[in-house]
Amino acid sequence: MRGVLILFLLIGIESTHFCFSQKSTFIVDKFLIVMGFQEYNTNGKLSESASQNTMDAANRIIEILDPDHVVYIKRIHKILNLSFSFPLVYTSHDTIAMQFDKRLVLVNENIISREKSNAFSSEELLNFLVQNNAKEIMVIGLLAEEFISQSILEGQEIGFDMYMIPEAIQGQTPKKKDKAIKKLTKLGIKTFAFHSLNDK
Predict the structure, then answer these.
(1) What is the SS3 assignment for the chain?
(2) What is the value of pTM for the model shown?
C-alpha cells in the first residue's frame, strides 16, 4: 500500500511538471504589448466592473509571461500653454494623465511612450522587437476600436504574427469592442481565449 502511495505521488509530481512545461513552451517566445492602461483612460471614463475585469485578465497574462517579453506603451498627452512671458505659447506633457493605472502590474521597465494611436509608429518599439527577435506578438489593453485595432493591423502589415486576447481588451462599450474583435478576426488576426493561457 505504501509503495502504491509513493508511486501515485511521483505520478502527480511528474504530471504537474509536464503541465507547467506545456504552458512554458506555448508562450515562451511570445511578446506582449500592453496599451492604454493609464489613469486618463480608466479613471471614470469606462465601466468600473468591466475595467476591473479587463485589468484582472491583463495582470494574469502579464504574470504568466517572461517579464523580458512584456512591453508597456504609454500615450503622451500634450497640453497647450499660454504665457505672459516668452515663449508666449508652448506645449508640455500632462504627467497626471500619463500615469499608469495603479492596479496594473509592472514587471519591468520596458516602458515606451507614443504620441500616435498606432503603437508601431514608435521607432523605439520596433527596435526593441527586432533586437529581441520577436515574431509572435499579443496585444492587450484599450481601446479595442481605436489604439488596439490600429496597432494590431499595423503589426500584421509589418510582418509580425499578431494575436489578441479579448478578455484583456476593452472598448468604449461592449458593442464597440465586439465589433472591433470581429473585424480583426475577419482580417486574419488570431484570438487566444484567456482560459486557454491558464490551461496550456
Answers:
(1) CHHHHHHHHHHHHHHHHHHHHHHHHHHCCEEEEEECCEHHHHCCCCCHHHHHHHHHHHHHHHHHCCHHHEEEEEECCEEEEECCCCCCEEEEECHHHHCECCCCCCCCCCEEEECCCCHHHCHHHHHHHHHCCCCEEEEEEECHHHHHHHHHHHHHHHCCEEEEEEEEEECCCHHHHHHHHHHHHHCCCEECCHHHHHHC
(2) 0.78
* Domains along the sequence of the chain with CATH: 28-199 (3.40.50.850)
Pairing relationship of beta strands 89-93 and 78-82 according to DSSP bridges: antiparallel
Mean pLDDT of 125-147: 95
CA proximity to 28, closest of 72, 71, 64? 64
Say how far apart CA 84 and CA 171 lie, in whole Å.
41
Does residue 143 or residue 92 have the better pLDDT?
143
CB 149, CB 184: distance < 8 Å? yes
